[in-house]
Design goal:
It is built from nine helices and five strands; from the N terminus they run βαβααααββαααβα.
């Protein structure tokens, strides 16, 4: 079984591309979904509150994801702290998930920051999804109901598309001009024939 990382900057369309691979029968591990679930874990929650304080909690004592995102995307040291807590746990979930997919020809691990966390070396191949920055900004503003400055702050905490595509084995351009399905089909065929 090949392990294939799928990455791209915020708003590039990683999830859409992942869904196309899933439609082809490829199993996808979503690192962001795994990470979000960890915020509900009591031990993780306690650790986060110890570091960031109770100001990040809602009235119901849940982590206020919007307030928390505001902190971590505007403070690189805060982002580094949270990544050091969450990323090892996400990788633990991934290793368990892999056990159920040992007989797959290949699997995808979808994550925004494969290169930034040096996680790319864990994969046989990496696919990068790329899109023009202005288009990514518009997509995220619409998806998350946030302003341009908030999106730009998030973008600045990730590597640029150019850096990611230079290191990737395959690149999918999601600029709303190039068709996605033919690009995915071509990569799928190459991976199945490895």
């Amino acid at each position: 079984m090949l392990k294939v990382g799928l990455t791209g900057s915020i708003g590039s369309g990683k999830t859409l591309v992942s869904k196309i691979f899933e439609a082809l029968g490829i199993n996808v591990f979503y690192a962001d979904s795994s990470a979000k679930a960890l915020y509900e874990n009591n031990e993780v929650r306690k650790e986060i509150i110890n570091i960031f304080g109770t100001s990040i909690l809602t009235e119901n004592n849940k982590i206020d994801k919007k307030a928390f995102a505001e902190i971590i995307f505007n403070d690189k040291s805060a982002l580094k702290k949270i990544n050091s807590i969450i990323h090892p746990l996400v990788m633990g979930d991934f290793v368990k998930w892999l056990m159920n997919h040992k007989n797959d020809p290949y699997i995808l691990h979808e994550a925004a920051i494969l290169f930034e966390t040096d996680l790319s070396k864990e994969f046989d191949f990496v696919v990068a999804v790329s899109a023009p920055e202005n288009l990514r900004i518009e997509r995220i503003m619409k998806r998350d109901s946030v302003n341009r400055e908030t999106v730009i702050a998030r973008i600045r905490n990730q590597w640029s598309d150019e850096e990611k595509t230079k290191l990737a084995d395959f690149v999918i351009l999601n600029d709303e001009n190039e068709l996605l399905i033919p690009q995915v089909l071509k990569i799928n065929e190459k991976l199945l024939n490895r």
